Amino acid sequence: MATGDVVFTLNGAPVEVPAGGSSLLEALRDRLGVRSAKDGCSPQGQCGCCTVWVDGQPRVACVTPVARVSGRTVTTVEGLTDAAAWGDRFCAAGASQCGFCTPGIVMRLAALPEPRDEAAVRRALLAHLCRCTGWNTVVEATCHAVDVATPTPARDLAAPAVRATLEGGAPQQVGPHVALGAVAFAADSAPGDALHAVRAADGSWVVGETLTAARQAAGKVQGRHTTQPLSWPIEVPPGDWVRTLQTTWVEPAYLEPDAAWCAPDGEPVGPLTNGGAFGAKRDSEVASVARRLAREHGRAVVAAYSREDVVCLGAKRPPLAAGVRADGTGVVRVARTAGVADAIRAVAPGLVVEEVDVVGPPTSVAIRAAGWAEAAVLLAPADGWVTAPNGARARAAVRADGTIEVEVHCGAVLDAVVLRSYCIGAAHMALGWVRHEAIAVGTDGVPRDLTIRSFGVLRAADTPLVAVTIHEDATGDAVNGSDAVFAAVALAVWRHDGFAPRWPTMPS
Questions:
Q1: φ and ψ of 149, to 5 deg
Q2: Which residues contact 35 (CB under 8 A, 6 or more apart)?
């Protein structure tokens, strides 16, 4: 053993790694090849994706120096004795979608004593964030409120994968292995000897033999949650309106930071490996950066954004300000964005669209239902039914106890478990969008809220039940249905909150 090496037990076997100032997460992933633990907040210790056990207790590995586990026992999901059962339950309940956050969630929940009741599970999940699932299916899987009597292999997983791909906007696997982190995201499939590239403050990319070395050379500064108040960048157009709305900057908040890797003269493995971040990563630069740096260095290179990079450089849904009349006509002023006018007119031809220049982060119409969801909500059909540009229809209502009821028509169902999961996730996202989600952006256009907990994403303990009714249409082509649910739930929540003129209606 070399001086300064750290020896500990990993999943029952002794291992040895150099200390070198690295975190336990980096040691697991890049020294030992255990990549089920994920680097979601890089590293803010706030998302829970890197949760492992140290001496049987859950701990976030990204902010744990590897030196602190010397002589101790570390367990990842690969060493969990009942991991297969957790994978089966999560798959049966639709409790994982992309699978990035669920290995850490499984490790947290597996540490809870039996019996695991819903209140205890939701409390435990306060240490985690998930953008996909909307939490309820995770609770169901953990509390055994789903039928897992039939072994998962008996379920044909081809159709679920097709439905997941429709809903997620990129090819996606479905199966017990997904929840256990066995789907290789870009940074997971890179060779162990790959160089690491991170972005410096001046926009250049710094390359290091290790992630720690690259971050140190780049001078990475940890992001903060600002005290700067929110701003609404566009004024409502003048007019005699029955309803007005202003939206502000919202962070898409996908959990996997943009990452890609490439071998010299090879094709990069890009950031859309198992799900599409609901459109937010479509124009990411990391794949082209990885290709360029691999050629320059003659070695495989992993290029990855930090969480701070994601917030500052990643595309946002275009903020807008609008007014509508009782007859469905009106004016929408929206941040200038390619395709946004067409998206709005697709569902609301009576709205005049005025694109305006706004100082702020980049915007994209590729983000979930951007433009058309806001337009559909502004029209506020009395019966609550929202029709998406692809023909899917959804309706939602908020019960007195807070439960959200959802109905959806989206052609052939293909797989009810996956579709229900995506509808619950869309409801969770829409509820947060209307009531809580926003980030402060300075007058220079730079986001100030850079911690993953500052985005306003709803926690498990604050998420209501979502009851989903799926209407089968075996004669129609299967189309994305969760985007229509996203818009319908936004309308239902906004109506319930009295059509407050600004979103979020309940900023923290």
A1: -65, -35
A2: 28, 29, 181, 184, 187, 188
How would you classify residue 176: left for phi > 0, otherwise alpha for psi between -120 and 50, otherwise beta? alpha
pLDDT value for 146: 52
DSSP code string of 34-83: --SS--SSSS-S-S-TTEEEETTEEEEGGGSBGGGGTTSEEE-GGG-TTH
Assigned token pair, 208: 């290091």
Phi, psi for residue 355 in degrees, rounded to 5: -85, 135
CA-to-CA distance for 46 and 8, rounded, in angstroms?
Answer: 25
Over range 205-215, report the average pLDDT: 95
Buried b (16+ CB within 10 A) or exposed e, 155-169: bebebbbbbbbbbbb
The pLDDT tens digits for 326-352 are 999 999 999 999 999 999 999 999 999
| Positive/negative CA dihedral, 430, 435, 441, 447 | negative
Q: Where are the domains of the chain?
A: 5-79, 83-183, 184-221+258-304, 320-496
Preceding amide of 115 cis, omega within 30: yes
Q: Please enumerate in sequence order all residues whose Cβ is within 8 A of that of 227, keeping only pairs 6 or more positions apart, or say none.
A: none
Q: Extract the tokens encoding 430.
A: 């829409």
- The class that CATH gives domain 320-496 is alpha beta
Nearest to 89 by CA among 124, 41, 121, 43: 121
CB atoms within 10 A of CB 242: 12
DSSP classification of residue 124: H
- Architecture, CATH, for domain 83-183: Orthogonal Bundle (1.10)
119, 36, 46, 145: CA torsion to nearest 10: -10
Given a cut of 70, is residue 1 above it in pLDDT?
no
* pLDDT tens readout for residues 219-262: 988 889 999 999 999 999 999 999 999 999 999 999 999 999 99
Taking the C-alpha atoms of residue 37 and residue 27, their distance in angstroms, rounded to an integer, is 11
- The whole-angstrom separation of Cα 173 and Cα 91 is 11
Q: How far apart are CA 351 and CA 364, in angstroms?
A: 20
> Looking at the domain covering 5-79, what would its CATH class be?
alpha beta
Residue 178 identity? V
pLDDT band at 152; cut points 50, 70, 90: very low
